[in-house]
Amino acid sequence: MRRNRSSLLSDVAFLGFLVLIYICAIFIAGAPDHYTQNIIILNVAFLLAVITYFTNVTVGLVLNLAFIFLYGFFVLYQTVSEGATIGVNTYFWLLMTPLLTMAVWILTLGNRQLQEENAVLQKKAASLASVDENTDLRNNISFQKDAVLFIGISTRYQIPLTLLVVKVKYWKEIRRLIPEDQLSEAIYDVSQLSQTSIRTNDALYLLDKEDATWGLLLFTDRDGAKIVIERIKYKLQELNDTGFSSKYKVNLGLKIGAVEYQADNIENPFDFIVQAKKQLEYDV
């Protein structure tokens, strides 16, 4: 409903602005004796409207007050020095200029509300999405949901469950060396290292795209996790040797931490991640 109001406000303001422009065009065409003066004032009115669009209504109204004062002083000067009379032309622009400014301000207000609502919707969509849109990898949201299921299976059937957290060393520095349009591709390439190193019943998650961090849920104990770790590091060496360094102009290193699920020490999926990340400190 709020979105509809914002859209309606923007549409009405736009139509109102067009109507005002139409009225100005008819008025100028109907007063050929004051054509030059009217064109100059119309340009000033447009300038005030544009300034309001890029600033705010307060600035626009202050500038309109300054215009009214200066224009009034000009009309008063003409009346006193030349004996001219105050006609419809004067009242028209004293009224029309603030109206144009207000119409543009309302249009701007409606557009900004729509932009804010769009940003909120995009943020909500990102928070609810379970798959990263660029790499098609399951994300942190998926991990939180799936970890509960994995933990339940592990507890019920007494199957060991281990979480690996894989992180690219010095990623913040490395991403400055990789063009922006290749970052998602680079993340996907590194993701394939882990994906091809695990079994089909294990799961891979992109936990933090900005910091290039992955999580792997493995139905195995710490000894089995060590085998996976060695496999990932071996494949990383192959990747660096066979093309990654030439493709992205950097060599990658990984830090890998592993923690086995223990009901007494791990209360929830988030705690699972935290404890696994602590193990990264020991992998130098």
From TrEMBL:
<dbReference type="InterPro" id="IPR000160">
    <property type="entry name" value="GGDEF_dom"/>
</dbReference>
<feature type="domain" description="GGDEF">
    <location>
        <begin position="129"/>
        <end position="280"/>
    </location>
</feature>
<keyword id="KW-0812">Transmembrane</keyword>
<dbReference type="Pfam" id="PF00990">
    <property type="entry name" value="GGDEF"/>
</dbReference>
<feature type="transmembrane region" description="Helical">
    <location>
        <begin position="91"/>
        <end position="109"/>
    </location>
</feature>
<keyword id="KW-0472">Membrane</keyword>
<dbReference type="InterPro" id="IPR043128">
    <property type="entry name" value="Rev_trsase/Diguanyl_cyclase"/>
</dbReference>
<dbReference type="InterPro" id="IPR029787">
    <property type="entry name" value="Nucleotide_cyclase"/>
</dbReference>
<protein>
    <submittedName>
        <fullName>GGDEF domain-containing protein</fullName>
    </submittedName>
</protein>
<feature type="transmembrane region" description="Helical">
    <location>
        <begin position="12"/>
        <end position="29"/>
    </location>
</feature>
<keyword id="KW-1133">Transmembrane helix</keyword>
<feature type="transmembrane region" description="Helical">
    <location>
        <begin position="35"/>
        <end position="54"/>
    </location>
</feature>
<feature type="transmembrane region" description="Helical">
    <location>
        <begin position="61"/>
        <end position="79"/>
    </location>
</feature>
